[in-house]
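pinned: reference chain
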Amino acid sequence: MFRNLIHRQYFPSKGDIESEDVKKLANRLRGQDDKETLTNVLGWQERNIQQWEDRWYMFLLLYVLLVVSFFFLPISGSIKFFVILVVVILVFVDFTLILSFFISLLSYLIVLLTWAFSVNPNMQKIVPMYQFIGLSVIFGGFIFLLLYLIIKYRSIKLRYDEFKLEDTFKLSLPVKKILKYRLAVCRDYAKITATLLLNLYPQNKIYFFVIPHHVATGTRINGKVYILDQKLPVNNPKKWLDYWKYRMKRKKIKVNSFEIVVKGDNIELNAVDLNNLFQDKSLKVNIEKLTMEAAKILNLKQDSEKEKADFEFPLKNYAICYDADKIVQFSLVRAIKNKLIDEFCGNLDKISKINIIEEKNDLILKVYTST
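pinned: its structure tokens
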């Protein structure tokens, strides 16, 4: 049951895959070849979807408050155990149900206890003060969090009348809503990517790669597996795992791999052993080739006479992600171009030369202008 709950967070439904919004987006992102298509999928997500941070931790925070609150209720231990068990079971249905039930129950309880203590101080013999204070603190925390969300998402509500605050707490959202809100956490990114890949490559194998607190989507093209994880570049499995080892500061991370299998109207998720993909040897960054490819896509003559670059900025962790594979390298070059477009607001004709150097896990992009 617990495994099904985890999978449900990022597992696309038949409706997600056949959504007209997804099909139209897939057609827009389809490139002339595989390297362009995969790069377009990640590039679009990086530029158009923002991290939905509250959706990442708010569920856990409110759920912990909920469970802790029951320890302060003036009821017997056996009843507490039963209530907590019911709440745990309800998580597998829908957290919004728990939320609405809990707020109503706790609101009435706080009002009742407040009245009891105000009219009869001797009630402290029946309901200890620590329980009353504990419930009051938890209730106040709940109200604060909800007010915070209401105020924060008021601007989104003004833009999208159909925005529902309770979507923040749901483990899984339909892709149509994620695309409309333009907000996502890793499980949402994985679901969007999977639905796009299933439309773009219906005959290819599509995978989910799950590590602690994170999930990403991959596909097999011409015998090679590529992982698409929220933003450019496209990664090979070994480089992707190296990146997350560095992010999580771990020497080892276990990866669970699952293949999406579509059989008519049924969609299944089967565990597969792909551990060999994460054992490939790491490659050194070919700075000269990467610089040459980036200059080529930018139509630069590389003829600046300046000894010192006009400015430079780091490409964080790009050295970790580097691979000589043509799809990975193409996506790296596109990522560099996108960075320059953002920095120059599209005025790339002002650039006369670029130079890329490696600095630990990062690549440093040095830019020379014609002015």
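why pinned: The longest helix spans residues 95-119. Strands lie at 50-51, 183-184, 206-211, 214-221, 224-228, 256-263, 266-272, 311-315, 351-359, 362-369.
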